[in-house]
Amino acid sequence: MRTCDFDYSLSPTLIAQRPTPVRDQSRLLLLRRERGLIKHRHFLDLVKEFQAGDVLVLNDSRVIPARLRGVNAKTGGAFEVLLLDENGRNDWWVMLRPGRRARIGTEIIFKNGSGTLTNVFATVVEKNDEGHRRLEFAGTANIAEQIPTLGEIPLPPYITRNSSQDLADDRERYQTVYAETNGSIAAPTAGLHFTPELLEKIRGRGANICFVTLHVGLGTFSPVKSETLSGHKMHTESFAINGGTAKTINEAKRNMRRVIAVGTTTVRVLESVAAQNGGELVPGNGRTSIFIYPPYSFRIVDGLVTNFHLPRSTLLMLVCAFAAPGQTSGRDLVLAAYAEAVRQQYRFYSYGDAMLIV
Q1: What distance in Å separates the CA atoms of residue 161 and residue 294, rounded to the nearest whole number?
Q2: What's the half-sphere exposure (Cβ side, CA atoms, 13 Å) at 193?
Q3: What are the helix and strand counts (H, E) for the chain?
Q4: For residues 232 and 223, is the Cβ–Cβ distance under 8 A?
Q5: In the chain, pLDDT over 70 holds for what percent of residues?
Q6: Distance between CA atoms of 318 and 357, rounded to whole angstroms?
Q7: Is the peptide bond before 65 cis (omega within 30 degrees of 0)?
Q8: Among 67, 87, 162, 194, which is 20 to 30 Å from 333 by CA?
Q9: Cα(173)–Cα(187) distance, rounded to whole angstroms?
Q10: 2: how many CB neighbours lie within 10 A of its CB?
Q11: Residue 335: how many CB atoms within 10 A of its CB?
């Protein structure tokens, strides 16, 4: 399939700049994929869709304040750094802007949240083919421990912020209520709608809730630049699945119970592990670069809670694959649902409304 097949038009006014005042009061578009039936609900109504024995699976990765700001030690020029992958203590691959000024040997002094220069600095030691820089940090025993005081939550570029209060609010709201394990540079946004109370109501329906971890990195949101989907290469991202989660889901599948995944990141963990193990889940840690697009036959996931995604994104392509497993017709079904969401003035992207596909 071609990348342009997953394009659509969206008014900037529908891009959510802030979350709803209460997490679970966002809207929910329900898409029943076999009939192509669309219903308009609120996220609180999600609980009504659960049956006893269903399994709800969530990604418990926690977003780190991975955006750092600093200056060139020689010229004073400003730099913005996004931490990507930790190679070891004080050794990170990063995205750095402006990249043209970050030659090998450049030294960057970092600011704290108040904009004051600190004793923490880094040296550019390497550049890869993708234009990312490798930084060696100094002035701290471990930069990972300094991130909470130095860094900002790395909001997507389509969300604008003008005040420090807004950024402080985002530290809470651009994070799921069940976030546990530090490591993501973007939120698994489908989970932002859940509250502890809503999760308890789902348990009250007799459903099981369990967790996987996938640290969201470039693999999730890098744009597809190739003309065809087969030409796109995903970045690898680290994941973990524990024994309890694997056992619960395997038993549900054997008993013909539904597994409902929250977010494309959760889907990628489950389907990646199942693909490597004959359709079964096994506990463990690993890295995945799985790229799911139509046609794709899903081994584990029976339902998907997801947000509305950017045009031409790998996330949208996964959703289209899920809407019609093993076929290519899911693209038309999802884009029709998106068009309906636009007509109904749904809010799009990270802080926007949600879909349930079953």
Answers
A1: 36
A2: 28
A3: 8, 17
A4: no
A5: 98
A6: 12
A7: no
A8: 194
A9: 10
A10: 11
A11: 18
Query: Cis omega before residue 98 (within 30°)?
Result: yes
- Give yes or no for residue 165 having a pLDDT over 80: no
Query: For 201-222, how does the pLDDT look when each residue is reduced to its tens digit (9 = 90+)?
Result: 999 999 999 999 999 987 677 7
Show contacts of 270-273: CB within 8 Å, 24+ apart: 270/57, 270/212, 270/241, 270/300, 270/301, 271/298, 271/299, 271/300, 271/301, 272/239, 273/239, 273/241, 273/246
User: Topology of domain 3-63+172-357, per CATH?
Assistant: QueA-like (3.40.1780)
What are the phi and psi torsion angles at 238 (to 5°)?
A: -85, 145
Domain ranges of the chain: 3-63+172-357, 67-150
Q: Report pLDDT digits (tens) over 296-343.
A: 999 999 999 999 999 999 999 999 999 999 999 999 999 999 999 999
Q: What pLDDT, on the 0 to 100 scale, is given for residue 219? A: 66
For β-strands 181-184 and 284-288, DSSP reports them as unpaired
Residue found under tokens 């040997």: 105
Query: Span 67-150: which CATH code?
Result: 2.40.10.240
- In this predicted model, what pLDDT tens digit does every residue of 43-61 receive, in sequence order? 999 999 999 999 999 999 9
Indicate whether this model's pTM tops 0.85.
yes
